[in-house]
Design a protein that fits this description.
2 copies of one chain form a homodimer. In chain A, about 35% of the residues lie in helices and about 20% in strands. Chain A contains 8 helices and 11 strands. In chain A, the strands form 3 sheets. In chain A, strands 5-2-1-6-7-11-10 form a 7-stranded mixed beta sheet, with helices on both faces. In chain A, strands 3-4 form a two-stranded antiparallel ribbon. The radius of gyration of chain A is 17 Å and the shape is globular. The interface between A and B is large, with 66 and 66 residues.
Amino acid sequence: MTSSFSEQSFAFLMYPGFEELDLIGPWEMATMWSAYADGPACFTLSQTGEPITCAKGLKVTPDYSFATAPDFDYLMVPGGFAALEEMKNQAMNNFLADAASRAESVLSVCTGSLMLYAAGLLNGKKATTHWKMLPEMKTFDGVEVVEQRYVHDGAIWTSAGVSAGIDMTLAFVADMAGEAAASIVQHNAEYYPDPVRYGGEAAADTSPAYVRALVAAE
Amino acid sequence: MTSSFSEQSFAFLMYPGFEELDLIGPWEMATMWSAYADGPACFTLSQTGEPITCAKGLKVTPDYSFATAPDFDYLMVPGGFAALEEMKNQAMNNFLADAASRAESVLSVCTGSLMLYAAGLLNGKKATTHWKMLPEMKTFDGVEVVEQRYVHDGAIWTSAGVSAGIDMTLAFVADMAGEAAASIVQHNAEYYPDPVRYGGEAAADTSPAYVRALVAAE
């Protein structure tokens, strides 16, 4: 038995109404890891395996259902307003709790962290979410809400809204496989983003602390 | 007849093997524009309308085929290694040439610009592509290759690789609808990316000029 990274696997969870970039940003980084730096095999799964319409209308089809999916080492959970409905889905909560008991790491983007909370995975953890849901998350018992771009607390990684999953996944690659692997992923995805901030929204009172700090530093 | 922006439409081109984030990054920005700042309606289309497997294995289904798609004002063309095959697809070339003659703007990400070239859309234009294809693109007649994150030349917008389409689309929103609209899109997508560059790949000789300038400025 070898323990080559390429024999590991990374599952990406889909559900009706998930936010497109929440999943596909991390998917692109993880699959670049697979393609160019010996990263884990990546696949998608959902409760039923049936075709799904995303939050903004993109139509996708998961590779597997909960029943047919192979084992995995890492799990990515996207957000979207639909995550608030999934918090009440007992089959989803059971899946997440079981996954967390067997997987090495569970990661969430945006309101995906609310699903982790509903499944009991954030007890005693630091975590974050989309800025719109920070006030709600701060009412949750047992979670320390941190207003960062992403938060790593043991086996649980959570990110801020939508695009923040890209940054979290690169940091995850660096943590798991080293900075050289993250460098290769970043370069192939040409992820050297433009730092421009348009208009005044970043300075809003509702902006998360990490964004207000960027504004204040100017 | 009003000319409200929300009555305009933005088509997103799919083809077998397109690179996931090339399309979904811009899609997320454009659909946030629709959802929160009166942006155009967004839809996906492909030559046949049949289900498609993307470069890294994501399974998607277009909303329309070339034959069934409604008219559109803007068109987004993603890249991927498969774009090199699409350059030889006469039906694709015809579609792109026809689209360019009727649409207000045509945008491409990554090697999508090579498809615009094959369709005759880059004659006399400044344009860019993924750093891997810059040497190839520089052999093309009639195109001025610019090593920027994205390039706007009249009705044609082209971006560098994969993730660069996000930055281009935000700039496109700012250009079309104003900085306040781009600010709302950026804030809802929480696109305040981490500026970290992992490892040494960014400093490679093959890095595009805009990335080498970032490294040199440190």
